[in-house]
Amino acid sequence: PKPQNAITVAVSSRALFDLVEEQRIYEEHGVEKYVEYQQNNENVTLKPGPAFYFVKALEHVNARLLELYPDDEERFDIVLMTNNHAQVGVRLINSINHYGLTIERFCMTGGESPIGYLTAYLTNLYLSADSEKVQEAIGAGIASATMFTANKDVAYSDTQLRVAFDGDAVIFSDESEQIVKEQGLDRFFEHEQLNENKPLAQGPLKGFLEDLGKLQKKFYAKNERLNCPIRTYLVTARSAASSGARVLKTLRSWGLEIDEALFLAGAPKGPILVKIRPHIFFDDQMFHIEGAQKLGTIAAHVPYGVAQKYHKS
Which molecular function terms from Gene Ontology are attached (predicted)? Predict the structure, then answer.
């Protein structure tokens, strides 16, 4: 598809594949040894990385869209966006072909930061294992997250893309989270009830949720609502009674549907995510990421908002 029609998901090589050993060689022995190792092993297939099953699920959605809308270009386009050197490309291509992935666009920047290319590729979502690059991309206004591998092997749906989002500082801005951090929970509840009918400002992942919603509507238009290959989840630490209404009214004001909304009132997210088994779970707080990881969820950290200041300190 032409970039202006596609939903472009840029994935780094370390997010798509398991390159832990290769990264160790790079860090300990330098770029020349790293490139030499990759060339010597270019016929050895790389194992899946944290974004692999998410990418597979995107491609399943594409296949279903092409059945229903053979001439439509509004679908996912996966771009491999990596600061690897071109000499490493053969191993990446061999591994992509081995798994039957459709990744036609490569951007290999030979050690330079790939962030400038994200805008040129009209990127809707960028996933990387490098937190500094993700931070740079967020600063450039691009929806981005740092991928973390799950600590347990879990079976993921191969017929339905499942995407779980935290609310504040992910879909929504961090305005309410600032009040929690600076003035406490009681003041937060009071603030949310006073502002129940005032929509929250958008957060960094709102656009990607919108993209998913747009594609869902294409399936609904063909009477495929019950058989839709995309399902979205809001998994928030907010409590429904005291601060849930503002969230739901904000989504309604944006014209967005979410399939399932889970208000946990501060309870751990990990056990709920085990039940959902999302291909990816976006959250702005590292303790939620770590809790999800421990129980086998592939989590993606969104370095946005006031929680980052507290996490660093």
Answer: 5'-nucleotidase activity; magnesium ion binding; nucleotide binding
